């Protein structure tokens, strides 16, 4: 027998099955409710974007962009590729003595030009400067070549024709239709892209948005770290950078964690300065690292050039003593940043939010400035950050939006949130196909064709009333049917047979203790509710 392929989920990617999915739903539902009370509304974003969006916002030197993104070429232009190949093939027949090939070549090039112009009008991103120049040169060449073709298909000046043809071939080859797309590794870039694209800056007050869904990073899978993972995130965009916004965003997070009974969280905060003070601090760090270059690991040595701040993130044992002696960003902030940070802390105090200052909290994405924060939760092992966020004034401008727009936000790692809740024993009670504790409320056993008709109607009315009902699709023997009711952990078996139909009642059996009685439908409803 031939081997049957056994498919498995891809490494680092997993299924979330019932009853765990019920815990996910209640976590996400709590986020919707809590965020709603803070005036946030949901934005639903695409799963993939132009690669360039992430490269520019998250930063080329970050781990995410340099090694973790799932990027692919979008093959949306097969017609152009086909026309190009066809034109290049006909060029091979441009030999002395085959004049008819020349007309065919020109027709093929014209077909290519038509395909490209059609694509340009539908997708402006294809219209790069290089592509526009190439198209112009091809059109100029063909406009000079057509007059060389005589009505009977011959060519008057073959040499001139061929030298134009060589230029065309070169230009045909230089066209570049690559459209690089990336599965989103995070969603802040997408929110900012959407904010700009839809001109949301005209809305009154701050624009407050939340999102939830999968993100993709090619990281080494381990507990709490997946290649497809989920985030619940929120962003505030507007012209104000008041520290009260930073504190309220954090308050909203803590409110959600409290609602979910996530215990033992620790909030770490820091300020990483802005473009006025950070560059000088980074230079200071670089100079310090140069002095100890040989003692640093390979990653940190590379980061001396690319991003010395990230060395502060290092978990390498032997680098810790070196890092502890470094100058600290807090002592190198400019006056504005220092005042902003002090006020963020005061605003957190006003809200009764406990925090730890962690001068080494720099975060792994380039768009951050000033406030950064991370929240750890217990039960997660080494991947213990359940949430990360910070301020990113300047990102909107970097992506082509209004310079005055400021931003701050966070993303919770939903996988880690759920893991931490499970480790703490929260949500363990969920069960059954509906996610309700203990399986269906009612297992509706029917016997005979007439009883099936009655059972279908009763099941509908029970479900409309909110009960979880399991209705067997085919008739079963009494013992087997009730056995299944037991195994599904149903709370009650409701039995409809000929006797019940004749009497206009049902038999209801409580499966926990076997207590049984005969009830008419209205009494059944109140009995089940009790
Ligand atoms: P991030 O720190 O890269 O920030 O991710 C936020 C959270 O997502 C992490 O704290 C972690 O809980 C979770 N996470 C990240 N990678 C993985 C993974 N491979 N597996 C499981 N969970 C993971 C951001 O993404 C920013 N966009 C947050 C933000 C929003 N900053 C401002 N606004």
- What structural category characterises the helix and strand content? alpha+beta
Instruction: Kindly report the average pLDDT value.
Output: 92
Quote the beta fraction: 15-25%
CA(first)-CA(last) distance: 57 Å
Supply the number of helical segments. Answer: 19
Q: What about the largest sheet?
A: 8 strands, mixed
Give the tally of β-strands: 16
What is the alpha-carbon Rg in Å? 33 Å
- Which bin fits the share of residues in helices? 40-55%
What is bound: which ligands?
histidyl-adenosine monophosphate
Low-confidence stretches: 429-435
Question: Which word captures the global form?
Answer: flat
Task: Write out the strand line-up for the largest beta sheet, numbering strands in chain order.
Answer: 1-5-6-11-10-9-7-8
Structure description:
The protein is of the alpha+beta class. Helix content is 43%, strand content 16%. Strands 1-5-6-11-10-9-7-8 form an eight-stranded mixed β-sheet, sandwiched between helices. It has a five-stranded mixed β-sheet with strand order 13-12-14-15-16, sandwiched between helices. The chain has a three-stranded antiparallel β-sheet with strand order 2-4-3. α16 links the parallel β12 and β13. α4 packs antiparallel against α7, α5 runs antiparallel to α6 and α9 runs parallel beside α13. About 1% of the residues have low confidence. It binds histidyl-adenosine monophosphate (HAM). Histidyl-adenosine monophosphate binds next to β6, β10, β11 and α15.
Question: In short, what is this structure?
Answer:
This protein has 530 residues and is α+β, with helices and mostly antiparallel strands. The chain is 43% helix and 16% strand.
